[in-house]
Amino acid sequence: xxxxxxxxxxxxxxxxxxxxxDDRAAERINVMGSAATFAxxxxxxxxxxxxGPLLAWGGFFRADALSAFMILIVAFLSLVSAxxxxxxxxxxxxxxxxxxxxxxxxxxxSTMLLAVLVDNLGALWIAIEATTxxxxxxxxxxxxxxxxxxxxxYIVLCTVGIAFALLGTFLFYYASARGGAPTxxxxxxxxxxxxxxxxxxxxxxxxxxxxxxxxxGLAPMHTWLPDAHSQAPTPVSALLSGxxxxxxxxxxxxxxILAARSLGPDFSSRLLLGFGLLSLLVATxxxxxxxxxKRLLAYHSVEHVGIVAVGLGFGGFWGVYGAMLHLLNxxxxxxxxxxxxGDIARSFGSRRLHRFSGVLTVLPVTGALFLVGALALAxxxxxxxxxxxxxxxAQGMRSGHAAACGxxxxxxxxxxxxxxxxxxxxxxGAPRRRPPERPSWLESAPLAVxxxxxxxxxxxxxxxxDRTLSAIAELVxxxxxx
Amino acid sequence: xxxxxxxxxxxxxxxxxxxxxxxxxxxLAFRSLHLGIRVYAAQSVLLGLAGVLxxxxxxxxxxxxxxxxxxxxxxxxxKMMEEIGVRRESDPYVPPALSLGVxxxxxxLSYAAFKAxxxxxxxxxxxxxxxxxxxxLGLWSMAVGRKVIAQILGILVVENGLFVAAISTEFRLPIFxxxxxxxxxxxxxxxxxxxxxxxxxxxxSIDSERLNRLKG
Lengths: 482, 216
Description:
Chain A has helices at residues 2-20, 23-51, 65-92, 98-117, 121-139, 145-176, 186-191, 198-216, 225-231, 234-263, 266-289, 293-314, 316-348, 359-362, 364-378, 384-398, 402-428, 441-459, 463-477; strands spanning 54-56, 61-63. Chain A is mainly α. The two termini of chain A are 36 Å apart.
């Protein structure tokens, strides 16, 4: 029951927002709905942690450790952004449009939750396509020329991209017929992975990687991403970068497990490693020269999705463990930064980097949160991303990918320098002017929680999280901890 | 697994799918958007008929395809073109002759990709190769199309390619997947048409060429 309620809660919230049609009521429904969604998600994750995989509807819905992990990230970020939206969107949205915003917002959340809960790979594709359709008008919410252009690129590139993932899914479906009745069920396919035709699996995985990789923002299919991230309203950018990309990556990961069990780990790992390093390489120059802050953060998404792919590519227990931990850390850091930058940009009335200066002095709370987010994203200790990047790099050396590992660490170092170059004057420079307005505590409080979580993850990995990550790492790598 | 279809059915299906391939090339060659929508409708009907003839899982999907993609979606696109009062030529970026040449290369590439797979029976390999060809041709026509309607047509041809892949697996897809796919397609067309009218409002033109302000 917990399984279905996770999908239903945001869907009902969306419907309630539409039926009420009143902006203030929609805000209240939004807060209650996202809290309820998060509560259901937490219950589900606790259930999976205690009792192992849960099923519903005769196995159509299935939540294992990987699903539970994703559910919790999606629901948590959705909650943070929803709380932040209340104060932020009131000033951004035209009157009378707010209930539409909240309805689309929760519909978008429900499609992402659906994607990580279904066992059927065809249904997974439908859900991921639905995430695009639900979020197109969120990306184009501002109706400016730039926003409409970004929304158009977003829907066109993502729809066409993931069409190839469906072709790959059909190839797996066809391949499954060799071991009995054809099936699209992931667990069914995983059970007979050894009998699948290797040629079909290879070609199928390549299509899936291109398809879902487009949506995940892997270079060179990432071109929609900076536009969509920079033009969407800030809370939506946080969701796009923090969790939408990860849901597409989740699709790649499910197929990676199938391919690894069918062909051995080398084939799909090498592809992931290659695309991951390419993403880092492509993102680096854009990060160094970027002047628009939200675009800067968007290229950081390309970078960090690349790092997660590299971690999966290094493989082994610790490669997957580090990649999953990085996925969580990046989601938190990115939400913190996008929302923090949103506050700063609105307070100063501009998105250009050079207009902000001395934020820490004029907006102490927001400035401090922003600085924590930036240092976390740069991968500095004692914050979470340092730990996960360290685990990934260590696994790279251990698994004998010395050259790839050197490239990874070198690029991370260059990007760190670039990020600090952009961020330090903004945070610590001499204040040039006072912002006309300050963010309310309603916007800052959820961000403070995220910042504390990032700090905690940098210092220790709590027991339940460790057990979840270990379960995922064993599932993906097929080997025990060692 | 279904038994091999009788000879005349196999022949007719081959003929229909060959015509559908011709339609995809015709889309690359024609300049008129109206003609483009008709060609798309014809292609969908041809593929739908092929699905019905193949029987098994293809019947439901074929009927659905003929109704949805042969009638509803083209009607919707015509209505949209009327509403936004678009000029009828698509004037693509690349001259049609060159465009067709690239199309042929893409088709050869697709057939080569599936020829190399020993695990496939020749008819299934042909189906998947045709599917990939249609998808790549759709992608290519999107890349060279200047108008947003031309890009929507490109996406729809890509989707027709997926339909070919679905009917050539020879097994029935679960019914909720078929319905889900059709529903997704319908929503995608509606969302993009809404977006087109919004582009029209903000830009007073539907040249996708003008959608190039976001760079770097």
